[in-house]
Design a protein that fits this description.
140 residues; alpha+beta; Immunoglobulin-like; 2 domains; four-stranded antiparallel sheet; three-stranded antiparallel sheet; 7 strands
Length: 140
């Protein structure tokens, strides 16, 4: 009887300590800044331009250095940000030049040097919107 109780307590201790270790690892991995990038198209004086909403979805503040646009066959355009986003804080930035059809990617660089990119699917949808806007001649 005593041997059975010892085995049950040993198994219980092993299960609880394993769950605690996994919990601590997950908590430490998630305890950082995470960015969500949402590109959009705006208009001003019947002229279209590209913008981006940058949101910190993480649990820690994150410092941003710059954001940029990569176009096929051209030099990157970038704008310095030098600001810190707190938890759940977001900002909007835009590029007032004409809408780029040769858009390759949009990115944000943080203070650690990590490059956060807009997903390819979002870039594809954005290009489609730009083509439709140019076809309708409502934006230059």
């Amino acid at each position: 009887m005593e041997s059975r109780l010892t085995q049950v307590l040993a198994i219980w201790g092993a299960v609880v300590s394993t769950i605690a270790i996994i919990w601590n690892i997950v908590r430490d991995i998630r305890n950082k800044g995470r960015l969500k990038l949402h590109p959009w198209i705006g208009t001003f004086d019947n002229r279209g331009y590209l913008g981006i909403t940058i949101t910190n979805r993480g649990r820690r503040p994150i410092s941003l250095k710059c954001w940029g646009i990569v176009k096929e066959g051209e030099d990157d355009y970038y704008e310095d940000l030098n600001l810190t986003l707190k938890e759940s804080q977001s900002i909007d930035r835009d590029d007032q030049s004409a809408l780029p059809l040769a858009l390759k990617s949009i990115y944000v660089l943080d203070s650690t040097g990590k490059k956060w990119k807009v997903r390819r699917w979002s870039i594809w949808k954005l290009k489609k919107q730009i083509k439709q806007a140019r076809k309708g001649n409502s934006m230059a």
